[in-house]
Structure formats: structure tokens, C-alpha cells
Amino acid sequence: MNFMQPVRDFLGCATPDAWLREAVKQMPLLMQDHANCEKKAASTAMNLMFRYNDRRELQHKLAQLAREELLHYEQVMEMMEKRGMSYRPVSAGRYASGLRKHIRTSEPGHLVDVLIVGAFVEARSCERFEALAPLVDAELGRYYTFLLKSESRHFEYYLDLAKEYSPEPIESRVAFFREVEAELMTTPDPVFRFHSGVPIAEEG
Fold it and tell me: What is 19-184's CATH topology?
């Protein structure tokens, strides 16, 4: 899939095999956290739209993104219901907080960093869907493959907006967050989630 190459190039590492092995053993938890991630992604986009309501391009792109994320949330919920899985809250892992703690507090740096972090979250989701698709059952694999194009577009939305609203080139900030994100992916993580790192049980 050629449209996936920019996603792979953007990320600093591939998903570790240890995470994939754990994922296929914990699909109910993974689907639950996936649903929560879609809902959180819609909420993040909406919060940015309210906070920066004078940015026309941001309004346009994030409105579309929020609609798609909510649709995906509904789709995952329906798939869970078909499989007899009940919805329940799942506590957050370290991933989002591990990225967000490095976001600058003053503008325009704050907005730029939030958008860059958004790009990494979307790109990682996309990369994981591609890696998981051949490992899960046929129905779920088709759905994960279906998600790839929209998720790859979402990563580009965030990155394009970061470039538009930054008064200076963003390459150094992207490189910084790439290192942070890769470390979160490749180091031991005690909590298994859709965006978690190497499962503790797989360490070593």
C-alpha cells in the first residue's frame, strides 16, 4: 500500500513484535481501548476547534476528522456488540501523557506541538492497524485495512496544520517527538493498551 509509506517514514520505529504477540491474545481489551481511542480522537479534534475557532483551515480539517473518528467509534462499538463484548471504561496508558508532557505552554508553540503530537498518534494508529490486519480474524482484518486510508489522511491533516501555524520550520520539533514516541513504543510498558510499548511479560 503506497499511501502507507509516508506513515512509516514519519514514525521512528515499527511496532515491536512483542506487542503484536500480546495483542492477538488480548483482542477484547484491544477492541475496547480502540473504541476509547476513537472517542478521544474526536474529542481532541473538537477541543481544538473550540479553542482555536479563528483558524479556518483547522476548523475545516478537524471537523471532518472528528466526524470520521465518531463514525469509527460507532463501528467498533457495533463490532463489539456482535461479538458479545460489553462496553466498559479502560484506564489510559502512558502513551498520550508521555507525549503531551513535552508540549510547550506558550503560543504558537503550544498549538504546533499539539498538532505534531496528534500527527504521531494518528500515524501510530495507522501503522498498528496495518500490522494487526493479517494477524486477526478475517472480519476484523478487513475493518483494520479499511481504516488505513482515513487514519493516514488524519496524520497528514495534523502535520499540514502544524506547518501552517508554525512561524518557523517544524522539522526539529517533529524529530524531537519522533524520538520520544519511539522510546514509548520500544521500552517495557506495564499496561497493555492500543498505544502501549513492549509488554512487561515479553521483556527480554
Answer: Ferritin (1.20.1260)
